[in-house]
Amino acid sequence: MSTMLAAVLHDFDDLRLEQVPVPRAEEYGDVVVRIKACGFCATDYKAIKGIRRNVTFPAVVGHEPSGVVAEVGPGVERFRVGDEVIVQPLGHCGFCRHCREGNAHYCENAFVTGGDGPDDVRPGAFAEYMKTKESCLYHKPPGISFDAAAVTEPLAGAWKGVIHHSGMQIGDDVVIIGVGSIGLLCMMVAKAAGAARLVAVDVSDHALRNALRLGATHVVNPATEDAKARVYEILPHGPDLIVEAAGPIEAVRLMVDLRRRGTRWNVFGITTHEKFSLDGGLTHFLEGRMDASFGTTPLAMSRAVKLMETGLVDTEQIISHRFPLAEIHRAVEVMASPERNKVIVNP
Question: Cα dist. 233→128, 150, 316 in Å?
Fold first, then answer.
């Protein structure tokens, strides 16, 4: 096969299904993966619709893939043709200061397949095949479906934010603001890690119903009630940890307002350059700890695979829609709907 089907973004709101050349594993460490499933991330949607502007055209987005190794290049030793794999979108050099300090997502020589962040952006997984490097691959456990495995990267991000950066401990009272797909994953990680009370906050009743189904002990809707008063009714001493996984600046402001002394808070969901204010003296005397988290690392990916493999987190439960690649435009429409969770594209 010399050509494959791919969803090629030629300009904002100009996504075309086209036949393009199949990539080849020609350079050292190259691996070509036959894509079986790819999660549809909100950042992909923002690129397609022009909400995110840092896109170079033509582009193939899609950065949450799982699949089967189709071809290996020179030097590949740990993966063979036919292996079922999960792909981390971020590639790193392993030698720069950041990589050697364990922060591969800061890599000075990074590339990304189908996503954003580094300057080096390569074709992603809204296509039948994708080329990456051996260092970006993880063996897919046999008991996990390709669709569930395609949620590994966002699950890794949730683990990194909630556990690795914010240091959630067993018995913590946790508030998750925004329980779309990434917020639900943060909530499921917190539940698996032993959260005592787990409060989901969202303006969507659909999202809150999903949160209750997946382990929230309480839900709060700021559109219909005083969110701070309700949270402090549930948690009289206030939250130990607040994770903002929503995106809008209003969610960040609510997080700031919910703090009490010693609260840890993580700016996780917002990616737009909007401002919020802090009372310096109050922040000083509250003695809380602010964290943020973006992207994933090899450690986070490995932990996410383990969470799925052992059944501690079942990512299949947050998948709401599946579309073949040929129906990518329907998937784009569903991404705009509040009545969806994780959307999967199956090339």
Answer: 51, 38, 33
Tens digit of each residue's pLDDT (9 = 90 or more) over 21-49: 999 999 999 999 999 999 999 999 999 99
CA-nearest of 161, 208, 218 to 189 is 161
Q: Which of these, 43, 62, 58, 37, lies nearest to 126 by C-alpha position?
A: 62
Shared fold status for 3-153+296-346 and 167-292: no
**Residue 152: exposure state from Cβ atoms within 10 A (0-12, 13-18, ≥19):** buried
- Per the structure block, which two tokens stand in for 297? 């690392």
CA–CA separation, 186 vs 172, rounded Å? 14
Q: How do strand 129-133 and strand 137-139 relate by DSSP bridges?
A: unpaired
Return the domain boundaries, the chain. Answer: 3-153+296-346, 167-292
Backbone angles phi, psi at 162, to 5 degrees: -75, -45
Model confidence pTM above 0.85: yes
Domain 167-292, second-level architecture: 3-Layer(aba) Sandwich (3.40)
The string of DSSP codes covering 209-254 is HHHHHTT-SEEE-TTTS-HHHHHHHH-TT--SEEEE-S-SHHHHHH
Residue 224 bridge partners (DSSP): none
Domain 3-153+296-346 has CATH 3.90.180.10: yes
Q: How far apart are CA 225 and CA 335, in angstroms?
A: 27
List all residues 6 or more positions away from 229 whose beta carbon is below 8 Å from its beta carbon. Answer: none
Instruction: Give per-residue pLDDT as tens, 107-132.
Output: 999 999 999 989 999 999 999 999 99
Query: Residue 149 is encoded by which pair of tokens?
Result: 């495995």
Closest-CA residue to 243 (of 274, 284, 211): 211
Residue 233 burial (CB count, 10 A): 12
> How many angstroms separate the CA atoms of 138 and 134, rounded?
9
Cross-strand bridge partners of residue 33: 69, 130
